[in-house]
Amino acid sequence: MAGPTGPQVKNHSSDARHAPKGARLIDRSRIGMAGHSLGGASTSWTMLQDPRVRAGINMDGAFFVPIPDKGLARPFMLMGAGEVHEPGGKDFTWGRDWARMTGWKRWLTVEGGDHASFTDYPLLTKRSARELEITRAYVAAFMDRHLRERDQRLLDGPSGTYPEVKFWK
């Protein structure tokens, strides 16, 4: 069928018969985003553009697009490598944008970590799962707290289980 501007396409997006397999398993009221490097940097930008994303994590990514002065009022966690992302470290964007985060927030660094610490790369190079274990624990705690509304003491301050994780501000 053709209309005045070309072919007409029927929109089936609201038709459950055409939904992707497993789509009903997704709870659209509980969307969180976590990313590493450029993916981490894009998390805050995505949250500013899409209010459906309720919580976000930037893992070791510089903020290429600053959070605007009006701020970001949803939960956000910064998780980065040691000296580079500590306050006053080489990446000044974290300090700048931290001040513009007006919701629940945490700034964590992993002592002795590097840029690849938040990937599975340490399993190959260091033959250690420790950094992966830390990343999984803190990301899961953050998402559980903000998307499932489950109290997570791990996010309240330093932990004896993970002494290499420093809390800032």
Structure description:
This protein is of the alpha/beta class. It is built from 4 helices and 7 strands, in the order E-E-E-H-E-E-H-E-H-H-E. The strands form 2 sheets. A 5-stranded mixed sheet has the order 3-4-5-6-7, sandwiched between helices. A two-stranded antiparallel sheet has the order 1-2. Helix 2 links the parallel strand 5 (76-81) and strand 6. Residues 6-13 have low confidence and may be disordered.
Distance between the termini: 61 Å
Strand order of the largest sheet: 3-4-5-6-7
3D shape: globular
The proportion of strand residues reads: 15-25%
State the helicity in percent bands. Answer: 10-25%
Task: Give a short summary of the structure.
The protein is an alpha/beta fold and 169 residues long. It has helices spanning 38-49, 93-98, 121-125, 130-147; strands at residues 2-3, 6-7, 31-36, 53-59, 76-81, 105-110, 165-168.
Q: What labels would you give this structure?
A:
single chain, about 170 residues, alpha/beta, 5-stranded mixed β-sheet, 4 helices, 7 strands, about 25% helix
Produce the secondary structure layout.
Blueprint: E1 2-3, E2 6-7, E3 31-36, H1 38-49, E4 53-59, E5 76-81, H2 93-98, E6 105-110, H3 121-125, H4 130-147, E7 165-168
